Amino acid sequence: MSQAGENRTTFGSRLGVIFVTVGSAVGLGNIWRFPYMLGSNGGAAFLLVYLLCTLLLGLPVMIAEFYIGRHSKRNAAGAFNVIAPNTKWFVIGYNGVLAAFLILGFYFVIAGWTLEYVFQAATGSLGEKSAADFNTEFSNFSSGVFRPIFWTLLFIGVTHYIITTGVKNGIERSSKLLMPVFFIILIALCVRSLTLPGAIAGIDFLFRPDFSKLNSSVLLSAMGQAFFSLSVGMGCLITYSSYFSDTTNLQRTAFEVTVIDTLVAVLAGIMIFPAVFNFGIEPTAGVELVFITLPNVFGKLPLGNLWSCIFFLLLAVAALTSTISLHEVATVYLHEERKITRKRAALYVSSGAALLAVLCSLSFGVMKNFTIFGLTFFDLLDYITAKLMLPFGGMLICIFAGWYIDKRILKAELTNKGSVPFYFFSSYTFLLKYIAPVAIGFIFLNELGLINFSEKAQ
Description:
By secondary structure, the protein is mostly helical. About 75% of the residues lie in helices and about 0% in strands.
């Protein structure tokens, strides 16, 4: 192994490992996408399918990425040059680095929106208004030029500062602060939501099993959510696991991160839907739920601006932990593979991401008529990464770890050279070789529209 790998910085504690890895997995999608999918696809029935998909699909890929990162002790691209030198497998790593960088381009825009709404709530601007008013205000804000770009650049600046302070003093220390704050806010909002008169209807919407809604389309949705929710295929887990110590239990860490990530998604549903149902508002997915419907809901509560401020602060923290991990993927690649200082590498990534983010932000307004293949710049980056690069990367990671890596080497790494038992190693490798790549392949084809089960299910 390289000298750079032997002298590599490692996270200082097991708690740090958990917090930074959970922070990478937990993002804005956990707050709005999972609760909506849970409620509209059979409630508890969908949850059971999702948990099964997480164990059979997401967890094996996460463990494989942990192996690649810690065994190589290199960045997402350099890892494959260490483990499989003089082969074409390096394509997986470069795919992850590029995907992380492109995701930053549009993710920073939404992250900036959360700061705008924290500011509005803190200054009392999110008072009780009609749903139409919230809709108009959001449309005017997001299509503007100065304000959304200002908040986006501010968010980039905060992320950049944390990255430049290093792995231990920046990433690990910030995660130890941000993740407890995140959970305190999330639980506080859940408690507040459960005290509302219509809470039972919201909980019923989330958790009452409706097995009649389970079909092939729902199965693919659960598989896709399990895959994307854990941040596999974008280089984050490989990069972070390269900072794991040799004594870190990779199996236990992957399992704990998977459980916590799922718990966050379920708690988000408990937080959102009792409040939504209390005021008779139809739950909808995506940006509309977060920036239009929920401000309307909070505005009708006692101390509505306070609860709005707390909620959007929660979103900002979730976004920040994700942008840190995505930024680190590209930064450490430039630092290690292009042999430039970490601060300069971070500056290059921040500057490039800022350029992409400005274009993405403007695509909601003055550039909305500028399209590529019929997509705005924002939608193009989202499509390329979510529907092409991430499934492609995840599928190749399964094939690489399942078919290329010597099973004795894989088992030695995952058991810390025999000091940690792996009771189901044969089952794990079977999932990695056969089940996971085929399942991700179906997700890939479904996302591209080459197969479409949803029409058959109607």
